[in-house]
Design brief:
The chain is an alpha+beta fold. It has 15 helices and 13 strands. Helix 2 runs antiparallel to helix 11 and helix 11 runs parallel beside helix 14. The two termini are 31 Å apart. 39% of the residues are buried.
Length: 416
């Protein structure tokens, strides 16, 4: 143990109360920073999982065709005219044309896990109690399980019954509650002047209320018959091995399939920005606690310097250099910072564990009955780094001031 370190410890112990206040601020700031980031990131990841489970990583929809505008250019010396074509925009046709060929092309991409055709149309659904508008989603029953979490989202009834019954339907929980529907009930789909009776095989809940109150899933062949669109596909839902690459893959996919490719990052851009803003806001707010702790450390070291001027003068007179004096006070800040970060990490982990067990019922853009947390080492690293920068910066300034004290000035009373 170096003499500078031992002296730093003795100076620290002479101001126990002030140092403990600074230490408590660091511990509190780091701990709250960690639990806040764990909660905000956890809820964001749950939202992303909900979105991917309901709508897939990528949606292929609406065929497009580049439109060309011709430009004529005349060569001055020969008078010859040349005509060039340039892209001037796109024409769109709703739906997916030649869906089987598009899916075959999608499977050429190494990141594509599965793809499933979906037909969507507006209907009215009714029973003996009530009538409600809804959206009918015709799906390929087996393939859709690979591009969504629908099988895991069944809360009442059976997915097996849905797969076996060609006239079976899956109804969202919010819609089922409004219409008092249970598995085994029959409901009536009305499109125009025609009505079709189907059997409720199960009730699902994604947690995304807009989905749960309007979507009804049925076999795609039955949906085509009900909607009178025998060969149409509204879009193709795609799942990926690496969902983070969805936005990167979109442009190459569009050039190959000649359809609009909508990755989940683009579809949910607004909500992702909201989560990012909340996370940054929490980071700034809780970093201010650590900043205030740094100011407390600055004040404490400044007071120690004022009270220990004679001790500093003695150290200088017996051969301690300015660098040694600087190191003594930097050691004090370093000790408090490291202890505060370690205790803050422990506090953050404890608070995160407690938060993960707190009951809370949320239904809206996702479904959860408890706080959702994300255990990430980066929350601890960032919190520790912020604390280290703030507190050590606050420690360096008074340390440099202490190093400027001259023994002669202290004796004459002219220091400072």
């Amino acid at each position: 143990m170096s003499p500078n370190f031992r002296i730093a410890v003795r100076f620290l112990l002479s101001k126990k109360r002030s140092m403990l206040m600074s230490l408590a601020g660091i511990v509190l700031g780091v701990g709250l920073f960690i639990v806040a980031q764990a909660n905000t990131t956890g809820f964001e990841k749950l939202f992303i999982k909900t979105v991917l489970g309901a709508n897939g990583a990528v949606r292929v929809q609406d065929k497009f065709q580049e439109t060309l505008t011709s430009i004529q250019i005349e060569q001055e010396d020969t008078g010859r005219q040349f005509e060039f074509g340039r892209a001037s925009g796109r024409k769109y046709r709703p739906g997916v044309e030649h869906a089987d060929k598009v899916i075959e092309s999608l499977y050429q991409f190494s990141n594509v896990l599965a793809a499933s055709k979906v037909l969507r149309g507006a209907i009215d659904v009714s029973n003996n109690f009530k009538a409600e508008p809804a959206q009918l989603f015709g799906i390929e029953k087996d393939m859709h399980m690979l591009v969504s979490d629908l099988e895991e989202q069944i809360v009442f009834g059976s997915m097996l019954d849905f797969q076996r019954n060609p006239r079976g339907a899956l109804v969202g929980l919010a819609l089922a509650e409004r219409m008092m529907i249970e598995p085994g009930d029959s409901i009536l789909f009305t499109v125009g002047d025609e009505s079709h009776r189907v059997l409720v095989s199960g009730i699902y809940e994604t947690g995304y209320r807009d989905i749960d109150r309007e979507r009804i899933f049925i076999d795609i062949n039955q949906a085509r018959r009900i909607l009178k669109r025998p060969h149409q596909t509204s879009y193709i839902q795609v799942s990926l091995f690496d969902v983070e690459k969805a936005d990167d893959d979109r442009y190459l996919m569009e050039s190959v399939v000649q359809h609009i490719v909508a990755p989940w990052q683009e579809r949910e851009k607004v909500w992702l920005q909201v989560f990012q803003a909340v996370r940054i806001s929490a980071m700034i707010s809780l970093s201010s606690i650590i900043f205030i702790s740094g100011l407390g450390m600055f004040s404490t070291l400044a007071i120690i310097i004022m009270e220990k001027t004679r001790e500093i003068a003695i150290l200088r007179s017996i051969g301690y250099t300015r660098r040694d004096v600087t190191h003594i006070f930097i050691w004090q800040g370093f000790i408090v910072t490291v202890v505060g970060i370690l205790m803050g990490w422990l506090t953050g982990a404890t608070l995160t564990l407690v938060a993960s067990r707190l009951p809370i019922r949320i239904r809206g853009i996702f479904s959860t009955d408890s706080f959702v947390v994300d255990w990430s080492i980066w929350h601890y690293v960032i919190a520790g780094l912020i604390a280290f920068i703030f507190v050590m910066t606050a420690s360096i300034i008074p340390s440099r001031r202490a190093a400027k004290l001259e023994p002669g000035d202290v004796i004459r009373g002219t220091s400072g």
